[in-house]
Amino acid sequence: VAVLGGGAFGTAMAAHVARRGNPVSMLLRNDDMRDFINRHHINPKYLSDFDLPPNLVASTDAKKAIEGCQVLIHAVPVQASRKALEGIRDHLPLGVPVVSVSKGLELGTQLLMCDLITDALGRDPKDNPVVVVSGPSFAKEIMDKRPTSVVAASKDLEAAALVQRLLTSPYFRVSITDDITGVEVAGALKNVLAIAAGISEGLGLGINAMSALVCQGAAEIRWLSVKMGAR
């Protein structure tokens, strides 16, 4: 398994998959961070309180990290995703599912990650099926093996089932769906709702206002998702 990105969530996903007994290559941009991780099995910048499994290896060589992988997990922030994907597309084998754990829309194009990935790779969607993994999943809690539940969404349910088998553990539950648009839109917009909820809390508006905000926000997310093609 190859993981593109060594931030907090990329590190957590790489460690989680490695704990499941899979060899993992985490592709980074920084040579010093690569060397530190491989020497000490700790990410010095993110989640440094946790040891990384010995079968997780950091690399700055895209060809070495990606060629031969069976799954690619994309954990790069949305606005940096296109450049990152264009940099590795020549090394990504056909048929390898691309698992996105990034949330949001690309500025300018307004593309969701499922469409951005296909566009940046310059391939037919069937060549490398995209699976979006989303849900309440803080990186630190994944590293700490706290109970977590997410959904793997893809138009290719076989690819979604593959990701489900890869990630499922006694403390990490994965459901699958083919409603990839609904999962992506909800995953992006819930952050807007969370900010609004924080403002409401900070202003001391009370539980009534918070409840109304969450209900109205959830309804508007659903309405927009359906307009964008979700079920």
From TrEMBL:
Domain Glycerol-3-phosphate dehydrogenase NAD-dependent N-terminal as annotated: residue spans: 1-159
This chain belongs to the protein called Glycerol-3-phosphate dehydrogenase [NAD(+)]
Reported EC number(s) for this entry are: 1.1.1.8
What's its top-level EC category?
oxidoreductase
Reaction equations catalysed: sn-glycerol 3-phosphate + NAD(+) = dihydroxyacetone phosphate + NADH + H(+)
The record's family statement is: Belongs to the NAD-dependent glycerol-3-phosphate dehydrogenase family.
| One GO CC term on file | cytosol
Q: Example GO biological process term?
A: glycerol-3-phosphate catabolic process
**Which Gene Ontology molecular function entries are recorded, alphabetically?**
glycerol-3-phosphate dehydrogenase (NAD+) activity; NAD binding
Q: Domain Glycerol-3-phosphate dehydrogenase NAD-dependent C-terminal: where?
A: 179-231
Domain of life per record: Eukaryota
Going by the UniProt record, its keywords in alphabetical order are:
NAD, Oxidoreductase
* PANTHER family recorded: GLYCEROL-3-PHOSPHATE DEHYDROGENASE, GLYCEROL-3-PHOSPHATE DEHYDROGENASE [NAD(+)] 2, CHLOROPLASTIC
Record organism: Strombidinopsis acuminata
Which InterPro entries does the record cross-reference, listed alphabetically?
Answer: 6-PGluconate_DH-like_C_sf, 6PGD_dom2, G3P_DH_NAD-dep, G3P_DH_NAD-dep_C, G3P_DH_NAD-dep_N, NAD(P)-bd_dom_sf
- The keyword Membrane belongs to this UniProt entry's keyword annotation: no
Keyword Lipoprotein attributed: no
